[in-house]
Amino acid sequence: MSAPTRIRPAAVAGRFYPGDAATLAATVDDALAHAAPSEGPAPKALLVPHAGYVYSGPIAATGYRTLASVRSTVHRVVLVGPAHAVRVTGVAVSGADAFLTPLGPVPVDAAARAAVLTLPGVSVDDAAHAPEHSLEVHLPFLQRTLDDFTVLPLVVGASDPRTVATVLDTVWGGPETLIVVSSDLSHYHDHETAARRDLATADAIVRGDGDALSPTDACGATPIRGLLLAAAEHGLHARLLDLRTSGDTAGNRSRVVGYGAFGFTPSVTP
Q1: For residue range 79-135, what is the model confidence (pLDDT) as tens digits?
Q2: Domain range for residue 14?
Q3: CA 266, CA 243: separation in Å to the nearest integer?
Q4: How far is CA 57 from each of CA 10, 17, 29, 100, 217, rounded to the nearest angstrom?
Q5: Alpha carbons 95 and 8: distance in angstroms, whole number
Q6: For the segment 34-89, what is each residue's pLDDT rounded down to a tens digit?
Q7: Which CATH number is 181's domain given?
Q8: Number of domains in the chain
Q9: Is residue 2 part of a domain?
């Protein structure tokens, strides 16, 4: 007999995004339809936000709309986000065989998991994944923008950017692999302050200046810095796709969270 399938159930369905499959699909599709059309090649990597859909969904959709041309090409997604609920040392992979959303299960890439588990600072930690929203909220967007794919879910805690970059490099792959890094930007400033701070953060990301980023600039600062290291080594540059706050989408402007979407594509040499 085969071993039973280990499923990581949805933790924030019905809170961060709709818990009903039909409503969820319609919500994601509507956000994608209203996102600005993408120009240029599809990105190898995306940096997108992870709040409730009413707040960050439109900005995430701007990023995910860029995947239209690679819908049937991408078969593996390396999904990286910061730990929010459980203290994590290093990079935590999930031991589950699949992650479940109301739209169905997403298989975990066992071969990619085995590859990264050979690296220092990487371990299996299902307790870190069980409540974590920073990865889960992206799965319905991926399920609506890609055909058949597996996911390598990675939660980053107290780690260093080089460890994250080495993990990404190990599973970088070719056109079949998409890297998605999950992060919100500034937290709980008034809208004007947040917009100013987030613009400076976006400029640093586009410059590839990871040293300019701190956890007060982005909750996923370490994953972002790791992506910037790996992107530079693979000849990619970041392009800002969208930059807004919760004050622009669904919240009041006295206390907001910032959101940005960025695509990473090969640098163009004149």
Answers
A1: 999 999 899 999 999 999 999 999 999 999 999 999 999 999 999 999 999 999 999
A2: 7-266
A3: 21
A4: 18, 9, 11, 19, 20
A5: 9
A6: 998 888 899 999 999 999 999 999 999 999 999 999 999 999 999 999 999 899 99
A7: 3.40.830.10
A8: 1
A9: no
